[in-house]
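Researcher: Please generate the 3D structure of the following complex. Treat every line as part of one assembly.
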Amino acid sequence: MASAATSTSRGRPEGSLGDRIGRRVGHLALPVFTSLAIFYLLIPIIVMIVFSFNKPSGKFNYTWNEFSIDGWLHPLDWPGLPESLLASLGVALLATVIATALGTLIGLALTRYAFRGRGLLNGVIFLPMATPELVLGASLLTLFVATALPPLRGNVPTLYPTGFSTILIAHVMFNISYVVVTVKARLAGFDRRLEEAAMDLGANEWVTFWKVTFPLILPGVVAAALLAFALSIDDFIITSFVSGTQNTFPIWVYSIIRNALPVQINVIGSIIFLVAVGYVSLTTIRSAHAQR
Amino acid sequence: MTVLALDGRMENQIRVSDVDVRLVQVVKKFGDAVAVDHVDLEVRDGEFFSLLGPSGCGKTTTLRMIGGFEEPTSGLIELQGQDVTWLPPYKRNVNTVFQSYALFPHLSTFENVAFGLRRKGLKSSEIAGRVTEMLELVELPGFEKRKPGQISGGQAQRVALARALINRPAVLLLDEPLGALDLKLRKQMQVELKRIQQEVGITFIYVTHDQEEAMTMSDRIAVMNNGRYEQLGDPESLYERPETRFVAGFLGVSNLLPATIVGTDGGYAACRLANDQTVRVPAALTRGAQRVDVGIRPEKIRLSAPGESTGGQENRMSGTIRDASYIGVSTQYIVEARGGTRVTVYEQNVERATRDELWQVGTDVDLTWLPDHSFVVEAAKPGE
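Model: Done. Output below.
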């Protein structure tokens, strides 16, 4: 009540000149501050997109030279780029599918069933998120190499030399945590009576899952998959430990950066960004439509 | 089972016995807590049967066991003569209207109602026909395309009903389906439910904590308390002849007067009340007990001026008006009887309708009622 009273008295055009200026500044402060904050967040992206239209004078795309769309016309035109990009997309897609499937099932089990070790599993699921990536990468490399050495050699399938498959294993591992957390959040508000209703109406467990449970948790599963894909496609630290001779896009960028900074990096970065923004706006529009 | 199926006469006998649902010594424990305690129940074919009781009395758990959502700890559940105790919900010929309706939010009204028929693999044309027909029965034609988020609570309730009834179950289970509706809509739906039940002729088992709702709709009611039912009967006998203190208190208002049986007089037992006045009750109701509570409903008591003759067959007590509340259709009096017992009396506002004509506080009156109108329940245990 008190604050309402103050705000109405502020709205009156009375008071000294100083007060009026103060009010004007007060009204403008929030929008200005917000715009600055958003601009700050967007600077790297703006720079990336602007420099994707640059024609660098040398090998390094650091200084603005002249406008050109060469990079956009030949986005893959640099030795090693297509292969590494393909590997990145392959790892990200596969890791996303596997991690989303496993993580969704773990999330369901953790929310639905009371079983021995549930508390422990709940904690363990968080560990990959909390562990420094350096530690994860180093220990995964140790593990993969150890499969080729005694006493493990011959007793387990060897994962050495490291390459595409070890990158995939590593990515699935850290992605699962994020998927489980996201799916669990969606399941938290799930009304179990909907499943009871489905079974009451003649659907067995399998049909109930696909006709009722899955469609309802789908938004959570999709969000989890997007998160997993985003984490996977730009992972550098863990990947660098377990990639062996297999380049992914981030690894390739890092390896080439000492000799050159091609404009194609900006172009690929911009494309990934635009695809992501496009997808998000599409889903936002669609859900706004569905709610109407 | 095969023998029964082949032998027409045996099959006939089962139909004649017309018990749709039978519970035999059903127990349900959650950990150490006993939710349902050795319940035996028979629900007849085509009746509107209610499980009535306060929350936590085990009524919903009983219903969920019939629906197949809970497994009994022990006991047997039969549906039309078939043991369904361990069958999952989708193998039982029962359908449920859930308390919160549990409509599928991602499906249209049409698909919600069609859900059960789709599971049976019916042809699209037949499904469309039956859904339309069912939506007409619940008076929601034209709602096919709406999602559950786009309809009101009362409409959602009808969709839930249609979704269950379209499968033509042997028994329809309803778990407080009107609980979320406002009073006016609830009254309207009570009439509606009864109409639909009579129209389709399916056995309804209805769970509610609202005694008026149960009385309005039911053919028979089981009044549940602490995991078992205390009394089972039609609404009239439950109201007129409650057998336990709980039933007397849960269905309507009762005056309970502690008394000792002192003798019999024809078909009546004479009971001496705490204030030494003697009243008579039908002897059969005392069930051989010595110390009982005599019960009388407030609207069965007549108030008259002290000493005014009213025939002589009635039970009579004298007292003083302590409070009078005018509630339009009737006036509610609190009368302090000799000895201090307080008795509630409802008097229709017919003979005395205006405020000055009502009995005034402080007036001495006689309370009279017919012995046949009283009922008898067990005496209160010490400390109650």
